Automatic annotation (TrEMBL):
Organism superkingdom: Eukaryota
Bias (Low complexity) ranges: 26-42
Amino acid composition bias (Basic and acidic residues), ranges on this chain: 1-10, 56-72
Protein name in UniProt: MFS transporter
Residue stretches making up the Major facilitator superfamily (MFS) profile domain: 104-517
Location of this chain's protein in the cell: Membrane
Cited SUPFAM superfamilies: MFS general substrate transporter
Family annotation (Pfam families): MFS_1 (PF07690)
TM helices/strands, residue ranges: 100-117, 141-163, 170-189, 201-221, 233-255, 267-287, 340-361, 373-390, 402-423, 429-450, 462-481, 493-512
Keywords: Membrane, Transmembrane, Transmembrane helix, Transport
GO MF annotation list: transmembrane transporter activity
Species classification: Eukaryota, Fungi, Dikarya, Ascomycota, Pezizomycotina
Organism for this UniProt entry: Sporothrix brasiliensis 5110
Region ranges (Disordered): 1-72
Main localisation: membrane
Length: 549
């Protein structure tokens, strides 16, 4: 992989863009308003004849991580783009995006399929004799499921901040994958509940690097309008794993029980862990790092890939991440109220989808044999892949986020109401067919909404993604105890709680939308908005930045 030296802007003179903030000019003119600005002075909006307070300089510099405010780079495109027509640039971008898609997406989807399989195959393993062989009761099994998410929670934020600082996702993510593949395979060697607890904890600790790391990774290659669909493609890995892990497990349970004197559940962990390690080694040679440091793009393509992101959010992730410490990004994320609203939104969506961690067990309440149960687990995930793709494509095409989250979650609420009301096979399976697409169709758009809402600086975005994803997965710790076999077959508590959290997530989406509408109105007036394209009044208007709602 190629490398690009980061520039030390601290020793260079400040560059003042001609258009972004002409502080010494007598006036700034836009299509709708004329303003006169001076450092730390009020801004007069001629159309409304109201004074708008200019941002405090210290606040702007602090929020911009002191480096962005010091540099104030002028957003100028690469020289080769200047003479291109809009059609020519669009054609060049289309070719570039296709090239990036083909290089990144197949591998990260495959990696996430295995990430999800290795995390959730314990549920299928119970149908292959795990609980019996390890002499575990239902509560011990629930603990084995939930303890993974303790390790998952602890590692997410440090991992993402480390990834942002090193700038080597093509090495870091596959290396983590090798380790978790080995740990997953080692589950086959467990002989009691204590050993299973230990293995599951460390599995979660290492797996924590992948999903938030991938979300950050995608945000370093794609613009905000492109993230929704790419996030849905990534998350389709989880949905595909839900469909095909059941089919794989069905084959192993049916044909490999006691093969070479090993129970089927042990073969399940050995085979799937080995596949994970093999794919991880392949990923070392396929995945790129960041646009400016990859060698499989031409020089013009590298410049265009980096410029698209800089034009979209006002920052060059490769350069800016070099000037940001681990904890500066975390501090900025924790100080932004939008982080906490997003946290509630994602926490409640993940909580409402906790049924997927125990899906084969819930499907077993339809009173089918083990193989039929595993086969019946597949169709809801297949439907979810289709609805997720369609919803995310439309969300990216329109730039809208709110309704693409709320409508699917409303379907999930209806599905849970049906499921808790009956144990009849037809309505019960209909509920299961709807709840998985309902929850996860909205979830992938909500994931993209994080990067849309907290786009800069890069370290803040990385910290927010990790923090929100970590907290959202804590719901899986308590959820495992709601699916104890003593609550079968209706699982009234679990279905009711999941229905309630889906409703709360809709309320959180309403709150976030209201906040972003208000911030966009401030941007329309040319006012300073913390977290917009930069910390200079009027720049967001000039460069067209708006929060996606």
């Amino acid at each position: 992989m190629g490398d690009v030296k980061s520039h030390d802007f601290a020793d260079q003179p400040e560059v003042v863009p001609a258009l972004s903030h002409e502080e010494h000019a007598p006036a700034q003119t836009t299509a709708t308003t004329t303003t006169t600005t001076a450092p730390n002075a009020a801004v007069l909006d001629v159309d409304t004849e109201k004074q708008v307070a200019a941002p405090d300089t210290k606040e702007a510099e602090r929020e911009g991580n002191e480096v962005t405010a010091a540099r104030r780079r002028d957003l100028q495109p690469p020289a080769f783009l200047v003479g291109l027509s809009a059609e020519e640039r669009k054609a060049m971008e289309t070719k570039l995006k296709r090239k990036i898609d083909l290089r990144l997406m197949p591998m990260i989807i495959l990696m996430y399929i295995l990430n999800y399989i290795d995390r959730n195959n314990i549920s299928a393993a119970t149908l292959g004799g795990l609980k019996t062989d390890l002499n575990m009761n239902s509560q011990q099994f629930s603990t084995a499921v939930s303890i993974l998410f303790v390790g998952y929670l602890l590692m997410q934020i440090p991992s993402n901040l480390f990834l942002n600082k090193t700038g080597r996702p093509a090495i870091y993510l596959p290396a983590c994958m090798i380790v978790w593949g080995v740990i997953s395979g080692a589950t086959a060697g467990c002989h009691n509940a204590g050993q299973l607890y230990a293995v599951r904890f460390f599995l979660g600790f290492i797996e924590a690097a992948y999903f938030p790391g991938c979300l950050y990774y995608l945000s370093c290659w794609y613009t905000r309008k492109e993230l929704g669909f790419r996030t849905s493609i990534l998350y389709s890995g989880a949905l595909i794993s839900g469909a095909f892990s059941g089919l794989i497990a069905a084959g192993i349970v049916a044909h490999m029980d006691y093969a070479r004197n090993l129970r089927a559940w042990r073969w399940l962990f050995i085979i799937e862990g080995a596949i994970t390690v093999v794919i991880a080694f392949a990923a070392f040679f396929i995945l790129p790092n960041f646009p400016r440091t990859t060698m499989w793009l031409t020089e013009e393509e590298r410049q265009l890939a980096a410029w698209r992101l800089e034009e979209d959010i006002g920052d060059d992730d490769w350069i800016d991440s070099k000037h940001q410490t681990f904890w500066q990004g975390a501090k900025l994320a924790f100080e932004d109220v939008k982080t906490y609203v997003l946290m509630v939104l994602l926490f409640c969506i993940v909580a409402s989808g906790s049924i997927t961690n125990f899906f084969p067990i819930v499907v077993q309440t339809l009173h089918k044999n083990n193989v039929e149960t595993l086969l019946l687990s597949a169709p809801p995930y297949v439907l979810a892949v289709i609805t997720t793709y369609c919803n995310a494509m439309h969300a990216d095409r329109t730039g809208e986020r709110f309704w693409h989250i709320v409508v699917p979650l409303s379907v999930a609420i209806v599905a849970y109401i049906i499921g808790v009301s009956t144990t009849s096979i037809g309505p019960r399976y209909l509920s299961m067919m709807l709840v998985v697409p309902g929850v996860y169709t909205g979830y992938v758009v909500a994931l993209a909404w994080i990067s849309n809402t907290i786009p800069r600086p890069p370290a803040k975005r990385a910290a927010a993604l990790a923090f929100i994803n970590a907290v959202s997965n804590t719901s899986s710790i308590y959820a495992s105890y709601m699916f104890d076999s003593k609550f079968a077959p209706q699982y009234k508590i679990a279905f009711s709680v999941n229905c309630m959290t889906a409703f709360i997530s809709i309320l959180a989406a309403i709150v976030l939308r209201s906040m972003l509408v208000r911030l966009n109105k401030k941007l329309d007036r040319g006012e300073y908005v913390k977290g917009a394209i930069n910390a200079v009044p009027g720049a967001a208007v000039e460069h067209g930045f708006r929060f996606n709602i």
